[in-house]
Amino acid sequence: MPNISRDEVAHLAKLARLAVTDDEIDVFAGQLDQILDSVAKVSEVAAADVPPTSHAVPLTNVFRQDVVVPGLSQQQALAGAPAAEEGRFRVPRILGEEQ
Amino acid sequence: MTELIKLTAAELADKIHSREVSAVEVAQAHLDRIAEVDDHIHAFLHVDTEGALAAAKKVDEGIAEGKAPASPLAGVPLALKDVLTTQGVPTTCGSKTLEGWIPPYDATVTRKLREAGVVILGKTNMDEFAMGSSTENSAYGPTHNPWDHARIPGGSGGGSSASIAAFEAAIAIGTDTGGSIRQPGAVTGTVGVKPTYGGVSRYGLVAFSSSLDQAGPCARTVLDAALLHEVIAGYDPRDSTSIEVPVPPVVAAARQGANGDLTGVKVGVVKEFGGDGYQPGVLRSFQAAVEQLRALGADVVEVSCPNFVYALPAYYLIAPSECSSNLARFDAMRYGLRVADDGTHSAEEVMSLTREKGFGAEVKRRIMLGTYALSSGYYDAYYGSAQKVRTLITRDFDAAFEHVDVLVSPTTPTTAFKIGERVDDPMAMYLADLCTIPSNLAGNAAMSVPSGLSDEDGLPVGLQIMAPALADDRLYRVGAAYEAARDAAAGGALIHKVPELGGTK
């Protein structure tokens, strides 16, 4: 039995905001299944008493002085925008048909 | 063709600083070389002729006014991986998503290079968002290995490695998340270093896997890599994972190493990295390198790191998980590509259609894999277990470094494979990073230095040297000693055996 079904891949794509095609789902389902088979090996040594590591160096919160420093100008911030209007990012309508 | 391009960065800097040649002449020689050969190599996604010449002119003017050079590399031409932001110069990360994007700010690495008077020639090709081992995942077409144009130059930083192997730039910057500096170095006969995680700022490095990504130097000699390392390294308040300690003395270590004495240095050969799956010529080159280290006075022992074989599977859970989160920023709203914004689609539909169009297959694969590994019900079995493996690998390193100063292995199991050979088989592609990944997971420093040509196919092989976190200088001492001995025994630097370029792509 595969690790991951075609339906699950379609669901993942939806969660990840990827409008994948049916053909892609077929290819990805097979490939993801093969990759998951291989990476599942990690559970062989991941015993309950081993603490997880999220970062190579211990992380501590870093604070800076609460003072204003120069940032991007409005023009710079909008320079790469796909669409801008009245000095703001213009975005498509937020609600879809079904909402 | 001018021979300026064949000089090392250290030699070029000497000539520029003593006014024997101008930085503009040096920049122009490299720009001419790019114009001559890059149609065949495709190392560059963007060449900034105007910016490079202006930066070079500034260096010349400073020297003419009698000012001290801004750094030991002032005036030296460099190729910058297209994953680091450059104000006013396009940054694409090899993706259609960012085609034509001109960042409004410089990465800290970029800023440090500019302040050091390093001349940035342009931006180099890479696997899309640094995901890959061959540059074949670039949306702009693959880079070709200067040793054999039908083969890959490694990845993800194949543009950077190829640019220096083809003498288009003296030095380059790469980024290494699972081996993307070291593996390209190995397959192109060049030097590549992944510094200790946190040693070089990630500010402005477009994030793939934040807990693993690290920028570092690519060069044709160990000394050049050290000089570049010192220019880009150091604490940066703009990166919360930046380490606030002095930069290890890597240049001094490279100079010390070049004297060729490794008496008293303990070298551990990683037992798990060899045998099945390794190309025999790679293993023979590695064995010869180990013998060379022994001849230099090093005390060589075998060391077992039993959990290293779990590094690859752990990496292919951790990196995709972080990538699925990091790449959520490409939402078609504030910058980058947007498609289907025709009034009939909602923001969410525009987002999904844009990401479908803008990302290539490998990026989509990893985003979905990461989304899966992080989803409830699978989190503990996959992501949680991978994080535990990360602990075990760090423990293996800690145990090993109690007995040895550095560890060594082949950098990658095979020499450069053919373009197209592994594109349809993701797992085969992932194996290229087998030996490099442990140092990303543990965060310690590691280098690839050329160990000659594989006797069966005549292609470059890399020796990987691994050192504890913050002991980056050990890499340079051992690497420089080995390089000097290898070059002396072989009658010259390996890179000068690269075929003269030209002919067909």
Topology:
The complex is a heterodimer of chains A (99) and B (505).
Chain A (H helix, E strand, L loop, with lengths): L5 H10 L6 H18 L34 H5 L5 E2 L2 E2 L10
Antiparallel strand pairs in A: 1-2
Helix pairs in contact in A: 1-2
Chain B lengths: L8 H9 L5 H19 L2 E4 L1 H16 L12 E5 L26 H8 L3 E6 L33 H8 L5 E5 L6 H7 L2 E4 L20 E5 L2 H11 L17 H8 L8 E5 L9 H16 L3 E5 L7 H16 L20 H12 L2 H13 L6 H22 L4 E5 L15 H5 L6 H6 L2 E9 L6 E8 L4 H19 L15
Parallel strand pairs in B: 2-3, 2-4, 7-8, 7-9
Antiparallel strand pairs in B: 1-3, 4-6, 5-6, 5-10, 9-11, 10-11
Helix pairs in contact in B: 2-3, 7-8, 8-16, 10-12, 10-13
Description of the structure:
The complex is a heterodimer of chains A (99) and B (505). Chain A is mainly alpha-helical. Chain A has helices spanning 6-15, 22-39, 74-78, and strands spanning 84-85, 88-89. Chain A has a two-stranded antiparallel sheet with strand order 1-2. The longest helix of chain A is centred in the first third of the chain and has 18 residues, at 22-39. The two termini of chain A are 37 Å apart. The radius of gyration of chain B is 21 Å and the shape is globular. Chain B is an alpha/beta fold. At the A-B interface, helix 1 and helix 2 of A face helix 10, helix 11, helix 12 and helix 13 of B.
How is this structure best summarized?
Chain A has 99 residues and is mainly alpha-helical.
